[in-house]
Design brief:
With about 120 residues, the protein is of the alpha/beta class. The protein has 5 helices and 6 strands. α4 packs across α5. The mean pLDDT is about 85.
Length: about 120
């Protein structure tokens, strides 16, 4: 699972496409602009948010860690807490930033394009 610790992303148009093309499965950030969070979900990337008062710096994360993110076997609900463990023995909770059940469905299908295409195929 390739994961990015996000500090600041300036280019919205590639803020979701670029990571998707690199195989990123999740982004952990301190906050999200609405459109960026939506774009990540649309590309099939899990948006995770540090809890209030926490961040990469306060948790001692450098970005060189390997992350094990417990996605509960895909049984996700909007806003739930997710456990993240690192290869250096650190463990912390993050907030799953799927805000609606439909966003969870988009992710389960690998993004909004796959979701729409599958629905079109099943409607015929």
């Amino acid at each position: 699972l390739l994961c990015i610790l996000s500090f600041k992303i300036k280019r919205r148009d590639w803020a979701a496409k670029g990571p998707h093309l690199m195989g990123v499965a999740a982004v952990i950030a301190s906050s999200y602009e609405r459109i960026h969070r939506s774009n990540l979900i649309g590309m099939g990337i899990v948006p995770l948010q540090f809890r209030d008062g926490e961040g990469a710096d306060s948790l001692g994360l450098t970005g060189f860690e390997r992350f094990d993110i417990d996605l509960c076997g895909g049984k996700l609900t909007p806003g739930q807490e997710i456990t993240v463990k690192t290869d250096v023995g650190k463990s912390f909770q993050v907030l799953l930033r799927f805000d609606t059940p439909v966003e969870v469905d988009y992710w389960r299908h690998g993004g909004i394009l796959h979701y729409v295409l599958r629905n079109l195929l099943h409607s015929k």
